[in-house]
Amino acid sequence: MNLVQLxxxxxxxxxxxxxxxxISFSMAPGDVVSISTDSADDALNFLKALATLxxxxxxxxxxxxxxxxxxxxxxxxxxxxxxxFITSHAAxxxxxxxxxxxxxxxxxxxxxxxxxxxxxxQELCRLFSLQDKLEMRPADLTDHxxxxxxxxxxxxxxxxxxxxxxxxxxxxxxxxxxxxxVLFNMLGGNMCLVFLSEYRHFIETFSKRELVISKGTIQEVxxxxxxxxxxxxxxS
Length: 236
Known about the structure:
The chain has helices at residues 40-50, 77-80, 98-110, 119-127, 143-155, 167-170, 176-187, 200-206; strands spanning 4-10, 23-27, 32-37, 58-63, 66-67, 83-86, 161-165, 192-196, 209-214, 217-220. By secondary structure, the protein is of the alpha/beta class. It has two domains: 1-82 and 162-236, P-loop containing nucleotide triphosphate hydrolases (Rossmann fold), CATH 3.40.50; 91-158, no CATH class. A hairpin with a 2-residue loop joins strand 9 and strand 10 (217-220).
């Protein structure tokens, strides 16, 4: 059974100002897909489409074989609970502490009303050195720590599909090893991963399939990642 299936699916291209050519694309549990692109905006829009944050112009989006209804965002809430999205556009709730932000997500995504962070979230906080920042408000965090909290929040959902926008830029290359360790454990549980990156080592470590997004089209590279990156760095 596919986790995600897009059929003749189209949405707006930020680069061309026109709709994307309709695509058909599917992912099975455990798939890992990297994105190569000449337009970061279009690649991000594709990630947003997978996250059900973009209204399709045409086509079908099936999640676990159930067709999604975009006519009302409330119809998508159960699906959104299964998707993690680490992106520069993610935000924390400003009037809550870090702990409260993480507890709120746990309450929403895991239907838990505990006043204590679960063991997995605590371990993620330890890995990203956030233990002494749990009572701080987002405005008091450094930019790096703010992004670490967003990363922990999205990882702690234990998502069925995780989407990432340039993780090497978002959390920094120095922290990719920590993230990679967490991802290896999560991928062992059949999570799907789709990511946009220019960091060759990260791509080669994880990518099993490659999509090329260019000039309003989305195409899959036959045989998976081959090393050529449109608009991307070849440096390790």
